[in-house]
Amino acid sequence: xxxxxxxxxxxxxxxxxxxxxxxxxxxxxxEVIKVEPPTGDPARAMEPMEAGQSVWFRNLNRGKQALALDxxxxxxxxxxxxxxxxxxxxxxxxxxxxxxxLGFDYDTVSARYPKIVYxxxxxxxxxxxxxxxxxxxxxxxxxxxxxxxxDGADGTPVVPGVPSADMAAGLNxxxxxxxxxxxxxxxxxxxxxxxxxxxxxxxxxxxxxGSAIAGGASPQxxxxxxxxxxxxxxxxKTADDKxxxxxxxxxxxxxxxxxxxxxxxxxxxxxxxxxxxxxPLVAFLREIFATKTRDQWIEWFxxxxxxxxxxxxxxxxxxxxxxxxxxxxIEAHGSxxxxxxxxxxxxxxxxxxxxxVLDEPQ
Length: 362
Hints:
Blueprint: E1 8-11, H1 17-27, E2 31-36, E3 49-50, E4 53-54, H2 55-61, E5 65-68, H3 74-84, E6 89-92, H4 98-102, H5 106-112, E7 117-122, H6 137-143, H7 164-187, E8 191-196, H8 197-201, H9 210-213, E9 233-237, E10 243-247, H10 251-260, H11 267-270, H12 279-289, H13 294-301, E11 308-310, H14 314-318, H15 321-325, E12 329-332, E13 335-338
Parallel strand pairs: 1-2, 1-6, 2-5, 6-7, 7-8
Antiparallel strand pairs: 3-4, 9-10, 10-11, 12-13
């Protein structure tokens, strides 16, 4: 039996963090009813499409039921109250204050159903000076400091490739909901969870922003080991204008590579302080990697114990054999889906459900 069989979830959220949270619950057996506005979740229209649905929408909403409700109408609100009668978890992602205006804030809902676990997801939390500030992932990354180190060699920040604040909020939300369900088993009462994208993102800086956390200066990418200042934790261009990385800073890997390159004399540089101290080694490696194509380097590194990887685009990454060996990318219902990233030995192989059409019968 799936771990969350018997848990009912009402999800009023749209786009990414909330739907990600509830899909992870649906993947593991929870009954998830996605309540959408009459016009539907805007993610339904996000291209590209496959088998008649948005790839984005399907990979964040599979296994759910979908119901269109106008929560500004008496009929819509009455139907939501009916749905909540036997609900374990309620998720919402509106701007702070909206649920109270609709009559479905936590105090009102829990007064009627005290066992409910109620999770709100927003950019900056439900209270405080930033609570009503509009923001999506990019703005949260900018205000949390992360965008400052998502920069190029000239120090200019660039748009991140991963919506980390969104994803962190979804993962934090899942963890908190499951903790609250465990707590309810002990106390008999539900709880309220205030998940902020900003709050969820901030702990991720502990390994890169130590100086700032301790009250000092902000880290600068080109002088930090994890941000581009270390020769053996860096990106290098190859002869065919593609890229490879050295992805571990342990001295043993530096020794192995420099021995193979017959430049063991450079090993002390790998142990120097990042930034200016390792700059000559970075320059040497740039020259070396520019002498072969990416594929030639893949072949060259095949028998060497060095933390090396080619930089792949998503087409190349998703075509790797080991993804299918681990069952990470599957074809079902005429479409491709990314499988859950965690599975349990006690359960049978996961099977993909399709994403719901709006107003699908319950």
